[in-house]
Design goal:
GO terms for molecular function: catalytic activity. The chain is an alpha/beta fold and about 300 residues long. Helix content is about 45%, strand content about 10%. It has a single domain, classed as 3-Layer(aba) Sandwich (Rossmann fold), CATH 3.40.50. Strand 2, helix 7 and strand 3 form a beta-alpha-beta unit. Helix 2 packs parallel to helix 6 and helix 4 packs across helix 7.
Amino acid sequence: MGACFGALLPQSCAPLWEIRGVLPKRLILIRHGESEGNVNRQIYETVPDNAVHLSKLGWDQGQRAGQVLFEIVGREPATWQDLFLCVRVFFFRILLQIYSRILAKQVLDASLRRRARSASTKVAFIASPYVRARETLNAIKKGGDFNMQFWHEDPRIREQDFGNFQDTAKLMSEFKERKGFGRFYYRHPEGGEAPSDVYDRVSGFIDSLYRSFVDHPADNYVIVTHGVTMRVFLMRWLKQSVDDFNNSENPDNCDFVVLERCLAGRKYKLKLAQVVKPLTDPPTVLSAMPLRSSGGQSRVIRDDPPPSQ
């Protein structure tokens, strides 16, 4: 009898119960909007990759992405409850009466308190600290009129490093060499990374993401990041192969990838790959994007919100 009830209790009791009880309904990955570097690669010769701003088109793309994001998440009830969670709560209430009364009650009460605190949290945001990603997040906030109740930046989801100031001609030569070596394993010299290096830091990010789910529950987690980082995240999360990565391409600026949680359990499925296009603005032409030098104001971020508490 005791062994039977023990099998129904979560292993390690609190951690597994807490994680399963607060997994978001969706994980939404969004690539940053069009940047100065997307228009003119030579800007990387004088401006650090982390300080490259959005173009006007990129800002408009971000606002449009905010509108699309609101269409996905904005009309739902404030808290998403799945059938599996309700069944677990029911069984836990039975177990409170017949097995491990005190311990089980502590676990249940802690989980329900977190749910109650998160009742008004529909969307949590995490962004790369690079200027173009942060500006995209701010444009999304403005376009979707989100209150940004919880957000933070995480350096582990930054862009793949290609070195410091980048010589354009040399970088193009490296891209050609990469084709023969293998895209996933090719490491750019002089301080650069391979996607396999990005995989390692994204794996650490995913581990801590589960802790964020527990500490800051929300129905939707939105991650604003970069093309290679998005592909590596999907590779890691969906357990894809190296060949899957090598056969994939970066999404366009401000494109979405939506992972939706299955009704029961911890698995997610690829629900939607959303292409976001601005309503009116034409593509930026090279002549409209002059080169600039790095300066003390280069990391001033447009419409930056205050840090969440």
